[in-house]
């Protein structure tokens, strides 16, 4: 997984980089086919914003969150992204099996 963290009007300190990295471990635990992660942190007056683009095979997932505290914005951001990853993983592994279960042709005859 390639991780890129950049900031606009904010310096990306080692503590902030470590915080983002530990939060992204949750994403890797749920879905390990992540290719690239781009994190963009910005500060505009009193609004602190975090954006993330997650590149997985065949799809790019994007989430953004704003808050008064950058750490709280990162927490909310990872929560949003985690929901998207779980939804994508469910779609990838389902392959329409639920619809085949109720199809009359798919039922074995007794």
Q: Per the principal axes of the C-alpha atoms, what is the gross shape?
A: elongated
Q: What quaternary form is this?
A: single chain
Derived from helix and strand composition plus strand pairing, the structural class reads alpha+beta
Instruction: Identify the CATH class.
Output: Alpha Beta
What's the helix count? Answer: 3
Strand count, sense and closure of the main sheet? 4 strands, mixed
CATH fold descriptor: Double Stranded RNA Binding Domain
- Average pLDDT metric: 84
CATH superfamily: Ribosome hibernation promotion factor-like
Strand order of the largest sheet: 1-2-3-4
State the end-to-end distance.
50 Å
Q: What's the helix-strand series? A: EHEEEHH
What proportion of the residues is helical, as a percent range? 40-55%
Could you tell me the radius of gyration in angstroms?
A: 18 Å
CATH architecture: 2-Layer Sandwich
Structural description of this entry:
This protein has 110 residues and is an alpha+beta fold. It has a single domain, classed as Ribosome hibernation promotion factor-like (Double Stranded RNA Binding Domain). 43% of the residues lie in helices and 34% in strands. It contains three helices and four strands, in the order E-H-E-E-E-H-H. It has helices at 14-30, 70-94, 97-101; strands at residues 2-8, 34-44, 47-56, 59-67. The chain has a four-stranded mixed beta sheet with strand order 1-2-3-4, with helices on one face. It is elongated.
């Amino acid at each position: 997984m390639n991780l890129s963290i950049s900031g606009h009007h904010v310096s990306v300190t080692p503590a902030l980089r470590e915080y983002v990295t530990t939060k992204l471990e949750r994403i890797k635990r749920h879905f390990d086919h992540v290719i690239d992660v781009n994190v963009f942190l910005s500060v505009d007056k009193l609004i602190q914003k975090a954006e993330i683009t997650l590149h997985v095979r065949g799809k790019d997932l994007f989430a953004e969150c704003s808050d008064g505290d950058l750490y709280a914005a990162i927490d909310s951001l990872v929560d949003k992204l985690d929901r998207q990853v779980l939804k994508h993983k469910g779609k990838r592994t389902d392959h329409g099996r639920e619809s085949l279960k109720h199809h009359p042709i798919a039922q074995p005859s007794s």
